[in-house]
Amino acid sequence: MCRRIMLFHMDQLWADHLAFLNNVRETIHLRAMAREQPLDEFHRVAIPEFHKIRGRVESRSAETLASAEITSDGVDLAAAGVRRPTSTWTYLVQDNPFDSDAEQALKKVRGMLRKKRS
């Protein structure tokens, strides 16, 4: 039971972390406009948040175990709100994740034009 509770909270916190990273990624260009290195700033924000996940999993799992209703069959996970994940996150890996799709398309066109000139 404890394992399922911990996995449930780990899954939720991981999805939250990925949403946070997506938000950081979407706004990282503002850091470049402020003359900061986008990749360094991304790591400066992302790494500390990642390290907080374990402690949050442990504390949320302890809270769930403390408040869960214990029946003759064991802990009632459904009543505690513990369920299996319904979806997963998928990311497309790109050469430069800080470029927009339009910028990447322009780079490809420029590369093709350079090849034709040669």
Automatic annotation (TrEMBL):
SUPFAM superfamilies: Helical scaffold and wing domains of SecA. InterPro entries: SecA_Wing/Scaffold (IPR011116), SecA_Wing/Scaffold_sf (IPR036266). Gene3D superfamilies: Helical scaffold and wing domains of SecA. Pfam families: SecA_SW (PF07516). One of its GO terms (cellular component) is membrane. Residues 2-67 form the SecA Wing/Scaffold domain. GO terms for biological process: protein import. This is Preprotein translocase subunit SecA. The lineage of its organism: Bacteria, Bacillati, Actinomycetota, Actinomycetes, Pseudonocardiales.
